[in-house]
């Protein structure tokens, strides 16, 4: 079999306060030996439908799981390193970091800078990878995900509206809004915003803003946007190209040039719109 598959689907409507989308993929051609799971705005549930994952480097200081079939990764400020070889096939579930207790019984803060083996989340999640692998098509796999996640979803997020507003503003500005301005807009002190934000998300507002600027730069590169790194830095809120490069090394573990050469040719950018019929 040749060629790659990439399928995007929306979750069940009841899950959408927490679940952003499902991504199914299959790669039958050569892939880079090392994949960098980059920091982003999402908490990510990742499941391999073939061989177990080889997590060779995890964010934070903790040891990565040993050959997991699936993982739950919190928001992070350094890359998760995955060794790859042969045929790849799996599912990613992108999750909002706010209100995660309604699905997993823990906050995003408790998952921050961690990669957790799916088997440690209970028998239903431990049984999910083989169940998905035994399902013959993407539509059926996404239906299984809906079923399992709906069983866990309580529907109660219990978030301060000021925090939800602050997060939306950070997303809308690509992480370029100043924390002091954001605190003023919601009527909180900068200190109080930092405390509440870190308690729920696990990162400080400043750290989250770094991740959002980095994510925006990566998305523009995936789209094939034609601009040099100096212009990219200016568009994404960096002081100059050197600032962009230093941040990329810190958050991706390599320079922008290395990532572009090693991984960008193997990545597919999508608009976030679910595939027809998925």
From TrEMBL:
<dbReference type="Pfam" id="PF12833">
    <property type="entry name" value="HTH_18"/>
</dbReference>
<keyword id="KW-0238">DNA-binding</keyword>
<dbReference type="InterPro" id="IPR046532">
    <property type="entry name" value="DUF6597"/>
</dbReference>
<keyword id="KW-0805">Transcription regulation</keyword>
<dbReference type="InterPro" id="IPR018060">
    <property type="entry name" value="HTH_AraC"/>
</dbReference>
<feature type="domain" description="HTH araC/xylS-type">
    <location>
        <begin position="161"/>
        <end position="262"/>
    </location>
</feature>
<dbReference type="GO" id="GO:0003700">
    <property type="term" value="F:DNA-binding transcription factor activity"/>
</dbReference>
<dbReference type="InterPro" id="IPR009057">
    <property type="entry name" value="Homeodomain-like_sf"/>
</dbReference>
<dbReference type="GO" id="GO:0043565">
    <property type="term" value="F:sequence-specific DNA binding"/>
</dbReference>
<dbReference type="Pfam" id="PF20240">
    <property type="entry name" value="DUF6597"/>
</dbReference>
<keyword id="KW-0804">Transcription</keyword>
<protein>
    <recommendedName>
        <fullName>HTH araC/xylS-type domain-containing protein</fullName>
    </recommendedName>
</protein>
<dbReference type="InterPro" id="IPR050204">
    <property type="entry name" value="AraC_XylS_family_regulators"/>
</dbReference>
